[in-house]
Amino acid sequence: MSSASDTDSPPFDDLHRVLEQGAVRRAARMLNALQTAEIAHLLESLPHKERELAWNLVDAEHDGEVLTYLNDDVREQLIGQMDKSELIAALGGLDTDDLADLFPDLPQTLTREVLRSLDQQRRERLQTALGYPEDSAGGLMNTDTVTVRPEVTLDVVMRYLRRLKDGLPDITDNLIVVNRQGYYLGVLYLTDLLTHDPEETVAEAMTLAIKPIRATWSAREVATRFEQHDLVSAPVVNDQGHLLGRITVDDVMDVIREEADHQFLGQAGLSEGEDMFAPVLLSARRRALWLGVNLLTAFLAAWVIGRFEDTIAQVVALAVLMPVVASMGGIAGTQTLTLAIRGLAVGQLSRKNARWLLWKEMAVAAINSVVWALVVALVAMLWFGDPRIALVIGAAITINLLAAALAGALLPLALERFGIDPALAGGVILTTVTDVVGFLAFLGLATLFLL
Prior knowledge:
By secondary structure, the chain is mainly α. The chain has helices at about 10-20, 25-30, 35-45, 50-55, 60-70, 70-80, 85-90, 95-100, 110-115, 120-130, 135-140, 155-165, 190-195, 200-205, 220-230, 250-265, 280-305, 310-315, 315-345, 355-385, 385-415, 420-450, and strands at about 145-150, 175-180, 185-190, 215, 235, 245-250. The protein has three domains: about 10-135, MgtE N-terminal domain-like (MgtE N-terminal fold, Alpha Horseshoe), CATH 1.25.60.10; about 145-250, CBS-domain (Roll); about 280-450, Orthogonal Bundle (Tetracycline Repressor, domain 2), CATH 1.10.357. A three-stranded mixed sheet has the order 1-2-3. Strands 4-5-6 form a three-stranded mixed sheet. Strand 1 (about 145-150), helix 12 (about 155-165) and strand 2 form a beta-alpha-beta unit.
């Protein structure tokens, strides 16, 4: 999904000003001169009322494609203001994979009518795509493919493609070779089709090196395959090797962006599909859950501090230095946690190699804890003139950094095993661990050695 650039599309401020002025025709021209992805980007950038006005100005022929580029919240809002006939017309021209992506967001009363509006072939293809989870290869694939048999000549293939004309799917870099039963055999690259002797057969010119993707693969596995093999498109098969469809690089780019948005926004407890201009009450309700969870963890840390109330009252310097211990542990833990979550996201971290990551992060934490414990102890010594306080805070930082590394490395794997999203829950739990361990170590050591 690309966004409008400053040089080839009107900036948001210009469109906003035109809408405020009520220059409807000019705004319509500005909108419909953009690519569909750019229209979607601008719609997401507008507050609700202006978004509804702008959406009504978009040409009906672009509606379906624009909907495919919108985030979940904005798409739901705009679908809600379209009537049945308008929505069915918008969806009619979409590719099967795009239609499958939109289908779960449609009102249940409308899904049957959409299915009835499709011809039998498209209906069967859509039902095949809907039979797989949205975040799987089967959910990503487009069933619109061009296949050829291995025994035909390249000249026959060329004449076949000429008859297709505009029927060739977008981003076609190869033709998929199948046998009479529809089982995948290999691919015939268009460059080979054009450069080989027309009298050669497909079997002589085809490539066997492109391994198919199983429909049950996760979207993350698909993205990894495309990255590692520099693919533009890839065939998708079922467990028996029967060709189902293909995945193209534009679908994989969407997966990568959604994964990046999820990791970035998830750390703040936000959904990647959330509308930036969603209604206040809706946004407040969604964020309240993680605020509540964070409040419980904060009370837990406060309870730990409260257990050492007498110690703090007698040694006031402890209250000044407590945030240093918690902050150092939080930063160190976040570094390890982020690394581990990314490793899971790109398929580099699993239970098989988790032990190596754990030992490596513990070693890094040990080195850093010694270095920074000495620095903080020196500062505390110069500040308060008490070597015992310096030793206590140095030891507490060492303990907390080691605990933070341990938690940061193990939490993502543990959360994933229990079916909890590490990007959403990892940060909250890690903060609890580093706060509780940090305060407990610092105040506990102070109670033992300073009183």
